[in-house]
Every structure is written in structure tokens, then in C-alpha cells.
Amino acid sequence: MTFIRLRALFLFAVSILCVTGPSNGDDSVLSQTKAWPLASETQTAWEALPNADIGSGTKLPTWARMLARTLPHTTAACLELEYLYRTEPLIIAPKVDASPSRSVDGRQLASIARFSVATYHNSAYGRAMAISDLGRNDSSSIAATLQSDPSKLPPLGYEVFLFARQMSKLGRDVSDEQYRSLQTQLGDEAMVGLVLRIAQGCFQDRLLWALGIAEIADANEEPIYVHFVDSTPNGANTPTALREDSEELLASIESDKQLSAPKPTTQQPSTDPDSTERSKKHKGFENWRDMSFPELKQYLTAQQERTPRIAVPEWETIASKIPQGLYRRPLQIRWSRVVVGYQPKLGPAWIKCLRVFEQEAHQNRVFEESVFWVVTRGLKCFYCMGHCEMLMEVGGLQREGIDNRTSRLSSGDWESFSQCEQASFTFAKKLTESPTQMTQADRDSVRQRLGETRALDLIWWSSRCQFMTKVSDAFQLQLETENVFAD
Fold this sequence. Notes:
The protein is mostly helical. The chain is built from 23 helices and 2 strands. It has helices spanning about 5-20, 25-30, 40-50, 60-65, 70-85, 95, 105-120, 125-135, 140-150, 155-170, 175-185, 190-210, 245-255, 295-305, 315-320, 335-340, 345-360, 365-380, 380-395, 400-410, 420-435, 440-450, 450-475; strands at about 50-55, 225-230.
């Protein structure tokens, strides 16, 4: 091995130590997480996880050891997801790959994007992961530039860095010019792959902040290659959860279910947040007051008329590419057709996580879509907001019940909701808009209202919503006019 090679490896090892800090195994991390929820030892966490035929016993990051007891199957799916997203190459279109001016490859771009997302979220875990992946791909010089001055990256690398940062902050504000510039250089398949990695980083970093461990840099230097025996593409082997919801929560939802479809009228629901004295007491809703509820409905209608930034594949062209059994019938959801059509490995891996969590947590549909609605309102993602309303209908609400619930959500005056709903909405809003400000008091609030297990369900779900909105906003997808979730 040459002196230059040895020197590069030494510098990379130093950079990893600077990012991650010293590690003495589980105990050193456990000492930092005495507050709820307490992380299990690796061995105890593996005992809680489903049976693995590959990778069992491997050291687990703190987030996995915190979730293993209550969400074992979801944790397993997320471990498989992290491995795939760290190792699957980002394949740039051949016309770009042949360009002599391109000085960064797809693997480097994926790590640059992950580092940018982690930098925005101040996630030591995400930064350590990105730097480690660059080291495995012989990109120590890129790693050093990222940590010192990202503006000195090669032009395409810096463009990806800025795109990922804007996506992390507010994906809706990515300009057509910014998107088109990267799309032209990368091609559609790589562009979807890049966006999915950004979305996964946003999900993961929000999950870390929600758990209170974003500052623990214990990402494995080598991605954890693990496979679980009963793992299926659609999560069919996931046992149904045995969880209970409070009577107060169920009564709140039942009251909206009792509202029948409204009589034809031209009058929109009046929910101007300044129309009542009570709503003026609520702080932190200043950015929500830039539009009334009728204006929100107009944005939803406008989303149905948008021209998407990417062609949505027809079902016939993607059915043979995706894992067998993932879908029971032709897929109508444009979001899903984009992610599985252009990325038949990365897309289904995320959808598997959704299926497993849905089965394992088995949350009340109206409740979870109300939480998601709060996230979409904070990010102004009207495609996902439209899907929230469709799924509220699947959950048993008619049009008047949906309007009643969403108009109260949009006002910021949540006093008419149950105590556990109020705590959950507040938690989701803060995680969306100020993730680095999450505190143990925020976690204790939902823990006290929802209970131990349901609070962790909420933490995962609120983080999951960040993934969905990033994809929708990046591609400016056209909202379907029919309920694509109805059987």
C-alpha cells in the first residue's frame, strides 16, 4: 500500500472520530438516554426483534434499541431499509455518466445529500453515516470538503447539497429551475432515487429528534446487513397489534362520524382563526394564519390541476418490476407509482415499512390522518393533505365530518378535541416546524396522554409523515380527483 493511500486512510479515520466521538459499546450510549424511552442492550433488543437468518446479534444503533420492544417488526423493516438506502447505488443517466466534466459519482451524491439533510437537522447520527459511507467508497476528499466548506464541492455535488438542504427545510419552495437543472443532469431514475434518500434522511432525523437521540452519532460504520425470516414485501406476516385507545379519543372521532353529508350549499365553512377570541390565545400559529380554511380548500383544488415535474408511470409498465405481492390490485396512487416505477428497490422497501407499521401499530385511521393533516398544513403540502382527507373517508367520516375536523385543525384552536389529540397535534406540529427544539417535556406530554406504547407509535408516525411530503413536494404531483384508497 502506498504512502499516499495510507495517509488518506489515516485522515479518513480521524474525520470519523471527529464526527462520531469515542464509543465504548451500548453502555456509553445508554448513559446518555436515561430519560424515557430507555434503550435496551443490543442482546435484549435482538430478543425482541423477529427471527433473523442474516445479521442477528450485530450491534444495533440506539434508535433500534429504543423501538425494538414496542415496534419490533417496524424496527426490523427500518433496519433493512437503512441498509438498502446506504448501499444501493444511485445510477446516473448514461448521457451524464459519459460526460468528462462530471467529477462526482452516484454513490458520492447520495452521501452528499444525506450529509446535507443531517446538517440541516443537526443530526450527528446522519452526518456520521454519510461520512462513513464516503469512506467506504474511497471518497475521503469529498468527506473532508463536506465538513470544511461544502461550497468547494464539485459543481454537481454542491448543487445536490443545496437541493437537499432546501428539501429538508421546505420542499414546496424548491423552484422549477432548481429541480430541472438536477433532473437534466441526473435523469428521472436517479432523480427519484435522490429524492427518496433525502426523504428517508428527513424521516430518520426527525425520528431521532423525536426520540431525543439525534446528537448520538452511533451509526454503524458498515451498514447492518440483516434479513428477517418472515420478511415479506407487503408485511403480511406482521402480527396485529394489541393496543387500546382512550375512550375520550374514540368519542372525539365518533362525533365527527355522526355528521352526515352536508346539504348542497355555496357557503364555505368559516374558520378564520381571528374570528374568535379563543383562537387568539394559541401561540405558534402565525404562519398558519396566512390562509383561511376556504383558501386551503382552493389550494387542494388547484393541486388537482398541477402539471407534475415527472411523468407518472402507467401501472402496466411497472407491475412486472416490483416485488410480487406488494399490491393486490392495479395501483392508482400517483405518489406510489412514481416511487416504485422509477425505483423498484428503494420504493417498495419504504412501502413495506408503511405496511408493517400499519399492521403492527394499528392506529385509528381518523386519528393518524388528523396528525398527518397537521404535518401537511405546516409544510403546505396539499397533495398529501388531499390524501389525508381521502383516508379520513376510508376511516368512516363523511364529507361534513371531514370538513368539520379539518376546519378545526386549520384554525389552531384545538380545545374541542380530546386531550390526547391536542397533545399529539402539538407534538407533530413542533416536530415538523422545529425538530431540533424537541424536549423530553414534549415526549412526556404525549406519553402521559397516550400511554407508553401509543406515544412511541405517534413518534414513528409523525416522523413518517416527513418522508411522504418530501416526495410529493419534490415532484409537485397532481392530486387525484377520486378517492384512490377506497376499496
